[in-house]
Amino acid sequence: MDRRLAVGHTAITWPDSRVEDAVKCCASLGFKAFETFGWVLAALEGENRMDIFEKYGIPLVSSYFSLDIVNPGAREAEMAKLENWGRILAGAGGKWATFGGNGVDRRTFNLADCRAYVAGFVNEAAKRLRESGIGLNFHPHTGTPIETAAEIDMFFGDVDTGLVGFAPDVGQIQKGGSDPVEYLKKYLSIVRLVHLKDYSGSVEYGADGKEIDTSGFTCYSPLGKGVVRLEEMLGILEGSAFDGYIMVELDIGKNMPMTAEAATKISRDYLASVGYKF
């Protein structure tokens, strides 16, 4: 089966301090693009190390920007952070900001209480990034203001989708209790980049109410080892007008059962088995 889309990888399987190891590994395994966090880019710039992408021959195409999108008191500081990260990303030839909100207390948070502010903040963020040549793609994430199916629908009903694209993380959406295949189809026309992640299939909680990491990868798994219908979603993307990057992702855990390098190779080998070239 011919596959036309380019596959990259994100840096989250490694500690931020080991971003160069992540770049080196992903390049050596044949991934076509790279994504890391905005604060990591700021650190690299401060250390005069932004040349690591050229050094290993893998382009930086996107960066994950996580900001406080619900607190009006933090607005100006967060916008300044956004503009700085966007400047660095654009300077390195990047194209997309994979954008999400900071964590909130999901036991008490209600998006309906601040939906107008959230939409206004994200619209403004997208306008400011566009001035630097960077597109903003929103990324729902467990533990943040946009997690559930109802929140995803509310959010995209409120924002300007001419400015704000969608960067679904298929594992996060499934872990959050929704069907990622349904949401990929529903919002396919505004999908600009995809985080391809597999989910182990269940979440357990301790007596303190905190999630227990049963997989060693915050309840996710290397591609092909979990329950997400990856091939179905890849088929949808390949058969559509989508022309963005598929970015493989696997979250770092406290007790990872293997190295980040070994896990990344498993995901690469899975994708090779379904037709992708590396």
Describe the protein's architecture and organization.
This protein has 278 residues and is α/β, with parallel strands linked by helices. The chain has one domain (7-273): Divalent-metal-dependent TIM barrel enzymes (TIM Barrel, Alpha-Beta Barrel). 37% of the residues lie in helices and 16% in strands. It has helices spanning 19-28, 38-46, 52-56, 75-91, 115-130, 149-158, 170-175, 180-186, 230-238, 260-273; strands at 7-10, 34-37, 60-67, 96-101, 135-138, 164-166, 193-196, 198-199, 204-205, 211-212, 220-221, 245-248. An 8-stranded parallel sheet has the order 6-5-4-3-2-1-12-7. Helix 2 (38-46) packs across helix 4 and helix 4 (75-91) packs parallel to helix 5. The radius of gyration is 18 Å and the shape is globular. It starts with 6 loop residues before the first strand and ends in a 5-residue tail after the last helix.
